[in-house]
Amino acid sequence: MVPALVGAATKDAKPDWIEASPKALHLDPDALAALDQQIQNGAYQKITSILIARHGQLGFERYYDEGGAAALRNTRSVTKTVTSMLTGIAIDQGHIRDVDARLLPLLARPSPPANPDPRKDAMRIEDVLTMSGPLECDDWSEHSRGNEERMYLIEDWVGFFVDLPIQGYPAWIPKPADSPYGRSFRYCTAGVTTLGQAVQNAVGMPLPEFAARHLFEPLGIQSVSWQYSPLGLAQGGGGLSLRSRDLLKLAQLYLDDGMYRHTEVVSADWVKASSTAHAQVEAAPKIDYGYLWWLLDLPLANGETIHLVAMNGTGGNTVLYVPSLDASIVVTTENYDVQGAPRLTLKLLSELVIPAIVSESH
After folding, report:
1. N or C: which end of the chain has fewer CB within 10 A?
2. Where in the chain are the domains?
3. Helix H segments across the chain?
4. In this structure, is the dihedral angle defined by the CA atoms of residues 79, 245, 351 and 56, taken in order, positive or negative?
């Protein structure tokens, strides 16, 4: 497969990015050629696309599958960060008071949840935005009652989440009070799925319609495919498919403090709050969590580290921006069954992608 070049003419590609040569954007052509060759040789398994923009201009665009630029990429949990964006827009517009708004009243459930507890009643929007709420939900533990694979087996995904029991903290699990930022992080798809329902109820329209009107259309995003629960709820926790170029727009939007072509799509305050650490995922390498954004200090081969703000999904899919380099990046993959796929993408970023973006101070 010959990779498509920046500016390549395809019937579905739209002139939605200003394009520039790698040299004009201080991207190293030799490093990009080496990156391209490694991907084609299969060194990083099944990478399907890599895009790099700098200073708001697209300088590198390659596709490694038959779908090319027109293909909708299912980047799985990258969807969670889109739900964060929609939450911020709903707050900006006054549909939700703020992140301290209680979750359960926004859900308007017909009956009280199982396992009643005052801590469940007090659960806030911020608790699900930071993956650190009071309910026992952990996708990274096959034993967790809230593991997402159990959610998919039942009809009512929101009911699945709100009926969960309160999380216990045996000696080997840090309590929130003993954790950085005062929160105990546990990756929970069901919580973000439920957040989508809360946003939908608050704005008074289906989540895909709200997204189309207030996020996708302002960005010129037209090709969209959602996944749905058995009860017809758009899945805010995963499965949204977008073109690679449109994914890149989402990273660029936050790199530009919520502005797109001189129009505010998301407030700068929400961008700042979302990209600020609220919970810790790992101590080393340092990975924190914002409002459904991953905040990573990535070690590079030269011993330096660089700060990335990322939307991540299963298989090592990532959509990110690098504030210090004024760069946005998309890596899509089909490495869903590859062990350690997220680490493989981090290796790709640290050894090939980031080093190709040359510091302009040199």
Report:
1. C
2. 72-277
3. 29-40, 78-92, 103-107, 118-121, 125-129, 148-151, 157-162, 189-203, 207-211, 244-255, 268-274, 341-348
4. negative
Task: Tell me the CA distances in angstroms from 207 to 23, 96, 201, 304, one per residue in order.
Answer: 41, 14, 9, 41
Task: Please give the Cα distance from 289 to 309 (Å, whole number).
Answer: 9
291 residue type, one letter? Y
pLDDT confidence of residue 12: 42
Q: Is the torsion defined by CA of 265, 270, 276, 280 positive or negative?
A: negative
pLDDT score recorded for residue 7: 34
Phi and psi torsions of 144, nearest 5°: -65, 135
- Closest by CA to 265, choosing from 276, 254, 273, 280, is 254
CB of 149 closer than 8 Å to CB of 160: no
Q: Is residue 285 classed as helix, strand or coil in its secondary structure?
A: coil
Instruction: Give the residue from 150, 135, 143 showing the smallest Cα distance to 186.
Output: 135
- DSSP state, residue 218: T
> For the whole model, what pTM was predicted?
0.95
**What's the CA gap between 296 and 281, in Å, rounded?**
10
Residue 54 identity (one-letter amino acid) = R
Contact (CB, 8 A) for 1 and 49: no
Strand, helix or coil for residue 109: coil
- Single out the residue of 173, 94, 98, 185 nearest to residue 138, CA to CA: 185
Residues of the chain with pLDDT below 50 are 1-14, 362
Angle at 295 between CA 290 and CA 300, to 5 degrees: 175
Secondary structure class of 251 (helix, strand, coil): helix
In degrees, rounded to 5, the angle at the alpha carbon of residue 248 between the alpha carbons of residues 247 and 249 is 90
Reported as a single tens digit per residue, the pLDDT across 170-218 is 998 889 999 999 999 999 999 999 999 999 999 999 999 999 999 999 9
- For residue 44, what is the enclosing H or E element? none
Contact 285, 219 (CB under 8 A): no
